[in-house]
User: Fold this.
Amino acid sequence: MNRFASLIRFAAFVRHAVVACAIAGAGVPGTAAAAEPIRIGSFLSTTGPASPLGDPESKTLKMGIDRLNAAGGVLGRKVEWIVYDDSGDAAKANTFVKRLIESDKVDLIIGGTTTGATMAVVNVVEQAGIPLISLGGGIPIVEPVKKWVFKTPGTDRQSVERVFVDLKARNLTRVGLLSETSGLGASSRAEAQKLAPKYGLTLVADETFAPKDADMTVQLTKIRNAPGVQVVLMVGTIQGPSIATKNFEQLGIRLPLYHTHGVATPDFLELAGKAAEGVRIAAPPLLIADDLPANHPQKAVLTAYRKDYRAAWNDDAASFGGYAWDALAIAVDAIRRAGGTDREKVRAAIEETRGYVGTAGVYTLSPTDHLGIELSSFVMVEVRGGQFRWVR
Assistant:
């Protein structure tokens, strides 16, 4: 692809004309060699249980930053990316973020992959006064609002609520809940407990599993035997829910099965295998981009990102990579509008993001909303014939 085509392709990734100018017109002749690089730091779970999330995030950030630098950088400055693998370990995440701030002198941080890793570093970034755009799904990341902390994935509250909307429409009111005990699973469980009465639902079973558990048949047997149970909802991040989905099939449970966005990745299809057939998932629309009508506001962004990711990595894009795509776009736009990397100016510019069309939704942030996307950003997806399909 020639230079011009690269610029046009990346412009589809960032916010229309404003961010396109930041990329295509960022280079200032004669200044790039002398200017200090813009340093973006990341801590991601590229190994460990959350690697199906962290790996596409890492690949997406590399793809986007390489493209930025090929286009001349941002504001005439190259972008230097410094990334560490926390393996999903909160203690490692904390250590790496301190290193990014104190030793690597980064200007902004994108990460972590999980809610747990992100929450482990919130106090560090707040005290240091450095913008953090998290890729974790849990609502505690942005509620209550923290001055320096933002996120791009929709929340566990939104994902659970989208499931409950579907259950109500299908007259499924008696729910068996199975949740992971840490991170996204724990916060999703709390949201399910709060939201159930709003939708006229009853949690007739409420079972949990640890992140490293290798079998959930005991919990699922209890759920199957719960009085009048009509449907099962599993909440957690990829590995545990995938095992539980296989256990669900092995036990011969003949109930509808739902998941939240913690499994919104092609890896879920591989890990759960044929047991995933018929499962419904509340997720961003990336998984079913081909099913969307041409006039859908995210269609162009979604299809371009999927095409570029496949070209770069010979693999299918996942929602989690899309979160990184959105985070980088929002960061680049903010740096451009701030006119540099002054931390407070960049933070304020992120907070002033308006109408950015991303992979996870259309973002409009504010001082009281450090996410900026609505419940309508989630769609209901069903696994049919080993593929994700849109439930209209």
Summary: The CA atoms of residues 27 and 76 lie 4 Å apart. Confidence is low (pLDDT under 50) at residues 1-33. The domain at 156-283 is CATH 3.40.50.2300 (Rossmann fold).
